[in-house]
Amino acid sequence: MANDQVLTKEAILDAAEQVLRRYGPDKTSVVDIAKALQVSHGTLYRHFPSKTALREAVTERWLQQSVAEPLSAIIEKQHSDADEALHMWLKTLIEIKRSASLNDPEMFAMYAAVTLDATAIIAEHIDSLTGQIEVLLERGKVSGAFRYDQPADRLARAVFSATAKFHHPAHAAEWTGESADEEFGSLWKLLLSGLASSK
Amino acid sequence: MANDQVLTKEAILDAAEQVLRRYGPDKTSVVDIAKALQVSHGTLYRHFPSKTALREAVTERWLQQSVAEPLSAIIEKQHSDADEALHMWLKTLIEIKRSASLNDPEMFAMYAAVTLDATAIIAEHIDSLTGQIEVLLERGKVSGAFRYDQPADRLARAVFSATAKFHHPAHAAEWTGESADEEFGSLWKLLLSGLASSK
């Protein structure tokens, strides 16, 4: 049984995630989460000043653990060419989002709602992901797989934006169509041609 | 004063558009539109069987007149190179959507809602726009501005998808940021490099 002394941020987020998956993001209240932790509502508010703060913290942790970290593992594999690594990176991002929308719908709905509010945590998450793309672009420039004149950080944002239809939560309803993989395949060929040429 | 004999589809859509702009898409009822036309509610239902059908018809006309037709005019100007024409076409599409979201918010909100419902009219509209891109891609292949191996219809969809962040209504909140034009500029350079190369 938890009490205020041992109530860590991680324990709160674990409980919040569990309760959220049970009731859904709209129906979950701070009181529900406090009950799951067997602490008072006031105790919980001392750690998170609002339901919004709690929702954002749960989403932030999910984005870090379920999106940014698995993608970062692809960057750390040095053995593949940068173009192959970027292809794998984008396919993995797309698959993580699609899988979450189908298999973890409550968390995905909360992430989609937090994204609509355009909070700082989403901006930071996007900075982190485009930073990963930038590493691959620079690696590919060194290896000769990519040739480009634009600053790598801007080009990384262009690659991320260009693929938004396949990973931004507003488009989730479009991900289950039969042609989604084929469409991404065409887009990837176009982007790869652009990255491999010199303009 | 309208009566059933002279009630044309265009007259209904004109009235519906006017009422919609006054009350907004959520608060507008079929009864409001019937009142504006000075016909009975039943008379209006004989022409449009539901509020949904009326909303879709107003949106369809708006997409045709305010989006597809001005873009088609760019295609018909034969004097520019295909790459310049495609750049102008995309910038015009982006500007039409941004302007509507700012200056015609009720119509834009209805279009955004109809888009979420993924109706057949949106699919037809996208077919029409990607058909226009296809014409430019084929023209550019003939002139040498573009080199590509993919079927032009698939590549046209890839170009449309790649720019979705700048014209799909789900992203409207992102269009007013200072960096939106610069971001599109980077993306366009990448796409142009891809279209001008041979993969």
From TrEMBL, chains A, B:
Where's the HTH tetR-type domain? 6-66
The GO molecular function terms of this record are: DNA-binding transcription factor activity; transcription cis-regulatory region binding
> Do you know which SUPFAM superfamilies this protein is assigned to?
Homeodomain-like, Tetracyclin repressor-like, C-terminal domain
- One family from Pfam that matches here is TetR_N
Q: Which residues bind DNA?
A: 29-48
| Key words, A-Z | DNA-binding, Transcription, Transcription regulation
InterPro entries in alphabetical order? DNA-bd_HTH_TetR-type_CS, Homeodomain-like_sf, HTH-type_TetR-like_transc_reg, HTH_TetR, Tet_transcr_reg_TetR-rel_C_sf, TetR_C_27
- What protein does this entry describe? TetR family transcriptional regulator
This chain's source organism reads Paenibacillus radicis (ex Gao et al. 2016)
